[in-house]
Structure formats: structure tokens, C-alpha cells
Amino acid sequence: MATTADIKNGMCLDIDGQFFFIVEFLHVKPGKGPAFVRTKLKNVMTGRVIDKTFNSGVRIEEVRIERRPHQYLYLDDMGYNFMNNETFEQIPLKKELINGVDFLKEGDTIDIVFHAESETPLYADLPPHVVLEITYTEPGIKGDTSTNSLKPATVETGATVRVPLFIGNGEKIKIDTRDGSYIERVK
After folding, report:
1. How are beta strands 36-43 and 18-28 bridged, if at all?
2. What pTM did the predictor assign?
3. Which 3 state secondary structure label does DSSP give 103?
4. 69-90 pLDDT, tens digit each
5. What is the pLDDT of residue 100?
């Protein structure tokens, strides 16, 4: 058991049977009254961010988690199947547990976060940026780069991304997996 003095960003807590990551915290010592800790907590399963205040010195239940690299193999009726790069053990994950699943392609290595005591997977994170090839987009008009207009483009995983007008078929682009936005063209 930890106390509020041990709180730090990235720590995982068990609150009422649900797991939360601490996004940010602030120790507050008002001029009158006891000190307290104001936190922003992100729910592991839903992704919702909530505000919670703890009195100073209160015991909190810390959850030990581990990040392990896994390679994506294939998709079947059980879900997305991954292989541990060290033990070669395979595990299936449901689509809801994978952040940025639309940009996942076979052979990619991602981090899966496990609850250390029960060995259950909590969620999986793709890298913040991936490079994918455009399979189809409408052709752009030469010289039409003065406006900040965007057009839809389909990438090799089947996801649709909004790209600038000068991007064409077969080009590789860098995509932000957190919000699915175009970052830059890759040479």
C-alpha cells in the first residue's frame, strides 16, 4: 500500500475495482485546513479522464503493471493475435483493448500492458507515429497547394486518413495513431 506522498505521473491505482493511471497531480497546502492531493486519473478500460481529490496521507492501492513487446500476427474470430517476442507465447486481444487499431499491420511490434499479479492484459498501445503507404486517393491538381484543403486517402491497413491535396497513390506518410491525423510525407 502506498500513500498520497508516493503519487507520481504514470502510476496505476486500483479504485473501486477499476484501474486508473495518474495523468497529473498537484499537492495543495491551503492556508487554512488540511493538505490534499488533486489528481487527474485516466480509466484504463474506457479512456475517460476524471478528477479526484485525495486527503493528504490517505492510503491508496497501487497496481503493479508491466509493458511487454508483442508482435502482431493475424486477426481471427478470437480477436487480434499477438506473440511475445521472448517466450513465443500467443495471446488474443479484443479490438476495444488496442489503442489505434486501425493503423495496425501484420508484423508490427507494439507494447501490451499487463496486470503483473494476475497476468491479464489491460490494453495495448501502438507507437505514437507509424509510416503507412497510401493505396488509394483522388489525384490532386498540380499547383493546388496554396490552400490548406484536405482529401480522404486510404492507407494499406484499410483506414481512411485526411491528407493534403498534393499527396498521391503509392506515397508513404507518417500518421499520428492517437488521433489518426496526417503528420508528414516520408521519402
Report:
1. antiparallel
2. 0.76
3. helix
4. 999 999 999 899 999 989 999 9
5. 87
Is residue 13 a contact partner of residue 59, using CB atoms and an 8 Å limit? no
Q: 162-166 long-range CB contacts below 8 Å, 24 or more apart?
A: 163/134, 163/137, 164/140, 165/140, 165/141, 166/140
Nearest in space to 98 (alpha carbons), one of 89, 111, 108: 111
Amino acid residing at 171: E
Cα–Cα distance, 144 to 50 (Å, whole number) = 44
Per the structure block, which three cell numbers stand in for 81? 493475435
CATH of 129-186, one of 2.40.30.10, 2.40.50.140, 3.30.300.20, 3.40.50.970: 2.40.50.140
**How many CB atoms are located within 10 Å of the residue 25 CB?**
18
For residues 85 and 69, the answer to whether their CB atoms sit within 8 Å is yes
Tell which CATH architecture fits domain 2-60.
Roll (2.30)
pLDDT of residue 72: 95
